[in-house]
Write a structure and sequence with these properties.
mainly alpha, Arc Repressor Mutant, subunit A, three-stranded antiparallel beta sheet, 5 helices
């Protein structure tokens, strides 16, 4: 199990991030409806969102940033789904919270079906 950095270490790391990584990470809560812990988002939606907010980013730049964030264990990418879905790791969620001040809500409890009475 990976030990999480302290809030001070995360803040120092966040302050060093190049803008492409900062923009990708801060966009994740914006493209995730009801941003929740361990919520998967669609990478193409992230690309469109970032292109609309910063037309200087090319799709390749955004995909390269996602790839590097995955290699550094901030995201996991579901390569079985043709690599179009990603999920922030616990470390990634902490970095996003450091950058945005937004913490994901806990996973919403999903109701059980009532037991049939027939």
């Amino acid at each position: 199990m990976q030990t999480l950095p302290t809030p001070e270490q995360l803040k120092a790391y966040a302050d060093q991030l190049p803008s492409i990584y900062r923009d990708v990470l801060t966009a994740i809560p914006e493209v995730s409806v009801n941003y929740r812990a361990s919520l998967t988002f669609a990478i193409p939606v992230l690309v469109v969102y970032l292109n609309n907010h910063n037309p200087n980013y090319h799709e390749y730049d955004i995909l390269a940033a996602v790839d590097r964030l995955e290699r550094q264990k901030f995201l996991t990418v579901d390569h079985g789904a043709e690599g179009i879905f990603a999920t922030p790791t616990t470390l990634g969620e902490e970095l996003i919270a450091t950058l945005t001040g937004k913490r994901p809500e806990g996973k919403a409890p999903f109701p059980d079906l009532p037991k049939p009475t027939w």
